[in-house]
Amino acid sequence: MKARKAKEHELDLIYSIGFDAWSSGLSLEEYLVGCRKSKKYSAGTWYVLVEKDEIVSSLIVYKSMFNLKEGCFGIGSVATFRELRQNGYASRLINLVKSELFGSLNCKALYLHSDIDRQFYSRLGFVSIQGSDCMIYSNGQVDCDGSLPTYF
Ligand SMILES: CC(C)(COP(=O)(O)OP(=O)(O)OC[C@H]1O[C@@H](n2cnc3c(N)ncnc32)[C@H](O)[C@@H]1OP(=O)(O)O)[C@@H](O)C(=O)NCCC(=O)NCCS
Question: Which portions of this protein are annotated as coiled-coil regions (predicted)?
């Protein structure tokens, strides 16, 4: 199993992973059109988890936007194909991306906005920031001065 950056031709497949959660009643084609036009989706870096040559999970990484400070990153749109959930894939992908960001990309703090029960992210080391839906994983180098990234 490995995590890597997504390739351009994989984007439709990646968008389709979250279809059941985020399509709000749209058809798959309508949903994909929206994803392809999304400025936020084009501005981030998509990562995938690959198991036996197949993509199983994906997430997007943001930096230098959404009020993320220098050295701070955000992750979002974490999703696993519905039939493959509960196999530890999303947890594995988050941990691998975390290692890359803190290891070679000088990340000081990683943020996310949780749409689901925070326990999932707490188990991966993220801590809730009081009074917000935001959670942070940090190596202690960042001062939390109360200014939070906007929703992504
Ligand atoms: C959340 C999600 C990414 C987890 O993917 P996964 O590959 O099954 O994750 P893992 O196998 O590593 O972990 C499974 C855990 O996710 C938790 N989980 C899944 N959906 C959840 C939800 N809606 N609320 C809270 N926890 C959830 C489960 O409780 C499970 O923990 P358990 O084994 O103790 O029951 C997947 O369910 C998904 O794609 N959901 C739709 C998109 C989404 O809502 N993404 C989160 C955006 S913040």
Answer: none
> CA-CA distance, 88 to 32, in Å (whole number)?
26
89 Cα nearest atom in ligand 1: 7
Q: pLDDT tier at 141 (50, 70, 90 boundaries)? A: confident
What spacing in Å lies between the alpha carbon of 80 and ligand 1's midpoint?
Answer: 8
Distance CA 5, CA 58 (A): 9
Judge residue 89's burial from the number of C-beta atoms within 10 Å of its C-beta, 0-12 exposed, 13-18 middle, 19 or more buried.
buried
CA 123 to centroid of ligand 1, rounded, Å: 12
User: What digits encode the pLDDT tens for the residues 38-96?
Assistant: 999 999 999 999 999 999 999 999 999 999 999 999 999 999 999 999 999 999 999 99
| Domain ranges within the chain, ordered by starting residue | 2-138
Give 3's strand partners: 49
Range 2-138 classified under CATH 3.90.1150.10 = no
Check whether 134 has a pLDDT greater than 60.
yes
Question: Where does the pLDDT of residue 143 fall: very low under 50, low under 70, confident under 90, or very high at 90 and above?
Answer: low
83 C-beta closer than 6 A to ligand 1: no
